[in-house]
Amino acid sequence: DASAWIIDSGATDHMTFDPMDFSHSTPPRRTCIANANGVAYPVTGAGTVPLSPSLSLSHTLLVPTLSNKLMSDVLSKKIIGRGTKRGGLYYLDDISKGAAHNMHHQSRLLYLAIVGL
């Protein structure tokens, strides 16, 4: 499912290919992003992506040539939702309805409780 978010421990930023995901747009801080193989992809925008009423991804990059939406690794000790492992990738399935959280690129990020670990 291309609309699902994949949790990527190697991603430096949250990234989406869909401009309709953004609730607020800002100029991107970079013009391209490279994958692990060194292939560069153009960044055409940035902003805030709401995932639920209580969770937004700040500083998300718009990378139209991506085939999946990527959430960068999350490190703090608050559960924000559940994910499922499918084909070696972890997909965000369900977001916690707890207190509002805003995931900032520079801050310690929230971690996910992964189903099946």
TrEMBL record:
Recorded protein name is Retrovirus-related Pol polyprotein from transposon TNT 1-94-like beta-barrel domain-containing protein
> Which InterPro entries does this chain map to?
PolX-like_BBD
Taxonomic lineage per UniProt?
Eukaryota, Viridiplantae, Streptophyta, Embryophyta, Tracheophyta
Q: Where do the Retrovirus-related Pol polyprotein from transposon TNT 1-94-like beta-barrel domain residues begin and end?
A: 5-72
Q: Which domain of life is it from?
A: Eukaryota
